[in-house]
User: What shape does this take?
Amino acid sequence: MDRTAAHDMKKHVLFVCIENSNRSQMAQAFARMYGGPYLMAYSAGSRPSGRINPKAIAAMQELGYDLSTHASKALTEIPDIEYDYAVTMGCGDECPWVRAKHRADWQIPDPRDMSEEDFRRVRDMIRDQVRTLLAGSELQ
Assistant: This one.
């Protein structure tokens, strides 16, 4: 299989929240962890904070993922492609200019100011949602 054919087989998933510092970053990380070589995961925010929350970095480090390598970015900084899935994280963000075959809005509470224990609960909720999404037929 040539490189072009392999690229065409890849699925592209975008996770969006306002600051792109917690929920969407962790979702992108889980998609990378569980998605395999044919899944490209992205995250962005409508008003990015410019940093990844240290709590998110610590929570993902507990699972062996280095979130400190990620960067908080705006929707204007992601590829201008049609995504297979665009997922908002329950933050009221709508991304009408992002082209996507499928859209979902996950009702995930903002963990920014939560205790470590509650932050982990939100992290695990995101992990479970990503696993469910990846098991769906649209991303097989």
User: Anything to note?
Assistant: Strands lie at 11-17, 39-45, 83-88, 100-105. The domain at 11-130 is CATH 3.40.50.2300 (Rossmann fold). The longest strand covers residues 11-17.
